[in-house]
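$ ./design --mode recover --in tokens.txt
reading tokens...
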């Protein structure tokens, strides 16, 4: 019903709730994996919620989708093959397809309902599925990566939900080992990596796992007002044999050209935001071992 305030209370952020005024509920069903909710908000456009956690809003999704995609893809010479883990709303696909060097994109999303709901309620994101370079695999990415040939991808983007429920396995060491195997030498990984205000232990664990598996590991972040604590981070790793060294402040070496005519212009990413994203506060560098 309209006017309801939706509270997102979760063990991922104990003691705090985040609410957005609901104007109208558009969709609410349980998939095989989670509850899928879409509602019209007062000031953030339509909102996608999975198991009570905001995944994206029309107003601020540009920050997350553009940064999680262009931080890795603008850090290597002409990326050609890309894998998306998760990302069933299609937003990351829309961003990848701005890179004319890309020839093949695989996406492995476990929950088909997320894809179908995005196509119906978020066409501005689901447009990513229309690109002929995109190949959709509905299933468990852990299984998908176990069967992926060695050195197949220039870049892998893990656009996951929080590590509770379907996203749980995506922060464990075996998963990162399969990612490293699937990347070509010099390939890059960009992994959603929670909030510096809420999850420094989890970030520390992920970074130490990545340091055992990749030659350079770094952390970047951006503002997303509708995520808990108003921001989200990314772990960026590059496999040995890469010209990219994420440890030092990175200047993008690839430009995002104008995309196909039906794809809207960039709203958030540019080279200054790219560089700024790797600037970290003192407490974070200390706590996650990036001094
Ligand atoms: N593809 C949409 C975003 C998925 N990732 C988000 C990162 C962390 C948030 N707490 C929930 C979703």
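writing sequence...
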């Amino acid at each position: 019903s309209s006017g309801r305030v939706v509270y997102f209370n979760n063990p991922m952020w104990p003691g705090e709730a985040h609410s957005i005024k609901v104007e109208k509920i558009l969709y609410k069903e349980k998939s095989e994996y989670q509850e899928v909710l879409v509602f019209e908000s007062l000031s953030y456009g339509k909102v996608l919620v999975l198991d009570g956690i905001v995944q994206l809003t029309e107003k601020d999704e540009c920050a997350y989708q553009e940064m999680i995609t262009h931080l890795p893809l603008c850090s290597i010479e002409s990326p050609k093959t890309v894998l998306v883990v998760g990302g069933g709303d299609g937003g990351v696909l829309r961003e990848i397809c701005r890179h004319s060097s890309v020839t093949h994109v695989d996406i492995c999303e476990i929950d088909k309902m997320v894809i179908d709901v995005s196509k119906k309620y978020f066409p501005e994101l689901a447009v990513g599925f229309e690109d002929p370079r995109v190949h959709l695999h509905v299933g468990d990415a852990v299984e998908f990566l176990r069967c992926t040939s060695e050195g197949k991808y220039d870049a892998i983007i893990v656009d996951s939900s929080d590590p509770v429920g379907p996203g749980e396995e995506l922060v464990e060491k075996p998963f990162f080992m399969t990612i490293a195997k699937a990347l070509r030498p010099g390939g890059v990984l960009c992994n959603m990596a929670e909030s510096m205000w809420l999850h420094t232990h989890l970030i520390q664990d992920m970074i130490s796992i990545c340091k055992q598996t990749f030659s350079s590991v770094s952390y970047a972040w951006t503002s997303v007002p509708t995520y808990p604590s108003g921001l989200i981070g990314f772990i960026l790793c590059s496999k040995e044999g890469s010209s990219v060294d994420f440890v030092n402040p990175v200047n993008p070496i690839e430009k995002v050209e104008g995309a196909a005519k039906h794809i809207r212009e960039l709203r958030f990413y540019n080279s200054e935001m790219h560089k700024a994203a790797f600037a970290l506060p003192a407490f974070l560098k200390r706590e996650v071992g990036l001094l």
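exit 0
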